[in-house]
Amino acid sequence: KCPRVSPVVTLCYCFVSPQIRVKPDNTGVVTDGVKHSMNPFCEIAVEEAVKLKEKKLIKEVVAVSCGPQQSQETIRTALAMGADRGIHVDVSGKDYENLGPLQVSKILAALAKQEDAQLILLGKQAIDDDCNQTGQMTAALLDWPQGTFASEVSLEGDKINLVREIDGGLEHIKINTPAVITADLRLNTPRYATLPNIMKAKKKKIATVKPADLGVDLTSRLEVLKVEEPPQREAGMKVETVEDLVVKLKEAGRV
Amino acid sequence: MHYCWELVLLPVPTVMAGLFQRALRLRTALRCLYDYSTLSRSTATLSPVDFHRPFLTCSSEQVLASTRKLHAGAEGSKVSPSAAPERLPFCRVTEEDLAFFRKILPGRTIVDPDLVEPSNVDWLKSVRGSSEVLLRPQTTEEVSQILSYCNSRNLAVNPQGGNTGLVGGSVPVYDEIILSTSLMNKILNFDSISGVLTCQAGCVLENLSFYLEERDYIMPLDLGAKGSCQIGGNVATNAGGLRLLRYGSLHGTVLGLELVLADGQVLDCLSTLRKDNTGYDLKQLFIGSEGTLGVITAVSILCPRKPKSVNVVFLGCETFEQLLKTFQLCKGMLGEILSAFEFLDSECMRLLNTHLKLPNPISDCPFYIVIETSGSDPTHDAQKLHNFLEDAMTSSLVSDGTVATEEAKIKALWSLRERVTEALTHDGFTYKYDISLPVERIYQLVTDMRKHLGNQAKSVVGYGHVGDGNLHLNVTSPSKDPALLAAIEPFVYEWTASCRGSISAEHGLGLKKRNYIYYSKQSQAVALMGNIKAMLDPKGILNPYKTLPDNLKQ
């Protein structure tokens, strides 16, 4: 007997570029023309959801992304990996710049209620802002249990067994459904989206909604004061003797 | 890096000296003759374990000659065409010579055997020289002084870049002085409007790539050895690589060279002009000359802009005919953004799975294609790619595939092609062939070779730059096998010659393939090459025993 769990997988559309430059006015980083694609941890979340569906433990996988028009591509990738349908929450311009974990989690909470979702799977954090907050906030807003930094997930009846990667080692927990799970690196290796599936994905539906339709207020509680590059790394110094080292350390006020 | 401990000769009593001399002569004779068999030619590869180099140089020429005759007489055999010829009568390095070098290259005249050793052995660990001197100049002027001196003293010189060549062209055969360009690694100029990069010959290709990428440009060539190979060596061997399909060969992208000729004369052809039809284009002669006509000291090269959108597609085909049709379709629909079209066969995939634990991203197919597109507009490129893939799939040319658009995935897909060489080294001793053929016939050679070798070989794989008509045919066996080699050669060269193909598409001739030149070039052409060599290097001190065949008398 398989539980009728219908997960919602949320995808981050974030920038993946090796070179980041701060905007001249120090209000943020340059995102124009920077390559955007699916957050690697979210990819792992999608893979986990598709795996669960293949094991017939869940009914349907819905992929969600919040962002401008281009974030639909990320949803398409998820569909090509095996998600059944997509929801694109259209956020662009200034709203998108101010979009943070709090706003996204409000959106997800609203969607979860709307879709009657039983499981929300996300990546543990986005690699552009490294917030690691969305999963936790969503669980709080819905008053659902949360299993974060998951490296193993298994469904047992209407409960979920989870192994979490924590600083001290591995933690085994059991939580009720509905729940929020955030994926860590070792949960799985995402599959490549193969051509036949990419073609099939084109026929799958992506619905577009606006945050206002979900009754979500996007105002940010944060104000970015300044964004700066970290100080340039200075060259080190070589000294010949231990005495020299001590002198230099004293000079630098370190000793 | 493998180190082979030298025998250090201490002053010994006469009795011992006599014994040692005999052992020395025997070793010398073996060293000159390499492997041989009465029946057929075998490859002239030294395993680093078999031959221990004595620290002192060989004894006299006469001893060499007599021992060679002795062994030849005893077996009555022919010597392999890829074996080294006898040592030519160059002078040997003396203390005086070392004093001169130390004066112009203080601290950069290396004679410590441990430090010289890595430069004596090639990347494949298949050939070893016995040079005792490694010179590391930093400027063109120093190279000029070295060559001028060596020319007057009749000392042979082996120019060496990154030492990543696969035909034994980069290491000494005997005691040639190794002239390393490794310290000549300055970038001299980059013009961001024209995209012309000027740099010294010792710049590592990958470092140049990093430098250019920060400025929104890329190098026009890319190869697996990029982390070690140097641009001077790339030019000297006319390296091809993965991007040749899109940006052309070095004959087109190199705009100028600065060279030092055999007599020390500096030839400054370091132009940065795109067009210059004033007289004979001398640099073309040196591109691909493998260090035998002059030592390249600086290069100016035209670099393309870094593409804004790069996509990599990994496809699977059932037959080679379908692969070729896919290539045609690809050229038609993706032509202007196509930057690479490579293939590998299922045997390669098996080796990647087994030895490097790299998983197949798609289902198992007889042939795999790696296609790369590079363009200026991601949306346009995605659309073109989408149309192409749809066509390829609906017409069943392609049975499976996957697409990558970001860095990490692109690297992962490329590694399936780039690491085949590495996987082969884990499979056993590899016999490598780099052949140019008419594109339709490329895989036929692999199939024929498999049939021809039967169970003698462990693996027979084919992969390479199918877009350029260049096949890399590799045969592995658990260990070096002269009988297997006899079965492979000259079969592979005769097969190639029968299609008027090239027995060395991009690897060059070096030591190993110099005598096979006639399979792909007419004797008149080779004779003219000999004349040019004699004119530019009358004493023949630049990289002797390489590139030109032995029977070409100067």
Set down the secondary structure blueprint.
The complex is a heterodimer of chains A (255) and B (554).
Chain A: E1 7-11, E2 13-15, E3 36-38, H1 40-54, E4 62-67, H2 71-81, E5 85-90, H3 94-97, H4 101-115, E6 119-123, H5 134-142, E7 146-156, E8 159-166, E9 169-176, E10 179-183, H6 195-201, E11 206-209, H7 242-251
Parallel strand pairs in A: 1-4, 1-6, 4-5, 5-11, 6-10, 7-10
Antiparallel strand pairs in A: 2-3, 7-8, 8-9
Helix pairs in contact in A: 2-6, 4-5
Chain B: H1 14-33, H2 61-75, H3 95-104, E1 109-110, H4 113-120, E2 134-135, H5 140-153, E3 157-160, E4 177-180, E5 187-191, E6 196-200, H6 205-214, H7 231-236, H8 244-247, H9 250-253, E7 254-260, E8 266-269, H10 283-286, E9 295-302, E10 309-317, H11 320-334, E11 338-345, H12 346-356, E12 367-375, H13 378-394, E13 400-404, H14 407-418, H15 420-427, E14 429-436, H16 442-453, E15 459-465, E16 470-477, H17 482-488, H18 491-498, H19 523-536
Parallel strand pairs in B: 2-4, 3-4
Antiparallel strand pairs in B: 1-2, 5-6, 6-9, 7-8, 7-9, 10-12, 10-13, 11-12, 11-15, 14-16, 15-16
Helix pairs in contact in B: 1-2, 11-13, 12-15
Organism (chain B): Oreochromis aureus
Pfam families (chain B): FAD-oxidase_C, FAD_binding_4
Family (chain B): Belongs to the FAD-binding oxidoreductase/transferase type 4 family.
Overview of the molecule:
The complex is a heterodimer of chains A (255) and B (554). Chain A has 255 residues and is α/β, with parallel strands linked by helices. Chain A is 28% helix and 25% strand. In chain A, helix 2 (71-81) crosses helix 6 and helix 4 (101-115) packs across helix 5. Chain A is globular and about 70 Å long. Chain B has 554 residues and is an alpha+beta fold. The two termini of chain B are 37 Å apart. In chain B, 49% of the residues are buried. Residues 1-21 and 26-77 of chain B have low confidence and may be disordered. The A-B interface holds A 16, 18-19, 33, 35, 37, 40, 192-196, 198-199 and B 214, 308, 314-315, 361-363, 378, 389-390, 393, 398, 400-409.
